[in-house]
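Worked problem 6 (solution included).
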Amino acid sequence: MIAYLRQGQETGREWFERITHTATGAQSLRAFCEMDDVGLTRDVTYFLGRDGRPVDAFCRVTLDGDVKGTALFLQEDGAFECEARTVDLGRVSQRLPTPEGGRYLGLHPLVGDALAAVARGTSSPGEFLPVQGSPTRSHPTAIKGLSRFLSPSTSPIRERKR
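Solution. The predicted structure is:
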């Protein structure tokens, strides 16, 4: 668990779970965040195939106990698809082609960074390598990011030389 402190007082927390499905090597990941000072919760669940690529993911954001947005993401037939409902936009359907297969969905900052780092790998230290995926370009509280789900990204990520 990660605790967020302001002037010695806890103002929020995040915890994470990972379950490996031993029969297939696939994994379920969950990240849950509570930010007391702004009344926000963010609940993100991923299912990663044995190759570490997202198969599907779910995200719900609440503010002061009211659902502000809910989204289901699927990766099928060379694309990420999103079915969502937000307070600001209503029902949203989006499709983002990923011909090489998306390696990550940026639904949670820490989990998204971890997925991108794993996809990038540690070969070729110091060299920039592209990682195809979809960040949600989210606002720090995740509310504004719900209005812009799928954005194409091929981000160069560099492994530091040791």
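Discussion: The first strand starts at residue 2 and ends at 6.
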